[in-house]
Write the structure tokens for this entry.
Amino acid sequence: DGGITQSPKYLFRKEGQNVTLSCEQNLNHDAMYWYRQDPGQGLRLIYYSQIVNDFQKGDIAEGYSVSREKKESFPLTVTSAQKNPTAFYLCASGGTEQFFGPGTRLTVL
Amino acid sequence: RKEVEQDPGPFNVPEGATVAFNCTYSNSASQSFFWYRQDCRKEPKLLMSVYSSGNEDGRFTAQLNRASQYISLLIRDSKLSDSATYLCVVNPGGYALNFGKGTSLLVTP
């Protein structure tokens, strides 16, 4: 089955800890993206990568970091510098049309 | 001015009704347009792309008016399973997408 997987589905973190969210795709897409969704808000772009070993900041990159060592994988690290990390994190891949993974709900305790 | 604006609703309609959503966008150079559907606590799923000539997929019809910078989605013969949030999405150029906050639809028996 082709698709995008994200793990974990739910994640709880203490303040001051870094956490890494996983995103894997087997759709052979060059471009991958990370979005954040807050209740009642539209999706906001955190980072995106058009090809391996290259990525660009989106609208809200502060407090986040990414890597793109393999075409299939685009992990997102939420660092302790992110002031309001509790949110629904969505990974996507694709070009003109983007397809989403099931998301990770991060809660900071 | 927000880049993509939608009426948040909720739209409460009975089964079998026809309902229409509109969305406006601010960037006149925008190149691609989409409607996504998002169920509660799930990822957005691509419903349809919107073409300049308009397009139809079963009970769903999308229209684009570039001169007025708005996009519409018409749902005919509403089903209970159509209850969801509908996201208007615009590609202003390049890879990033701009998302509206969504319009909530509730179809009742």
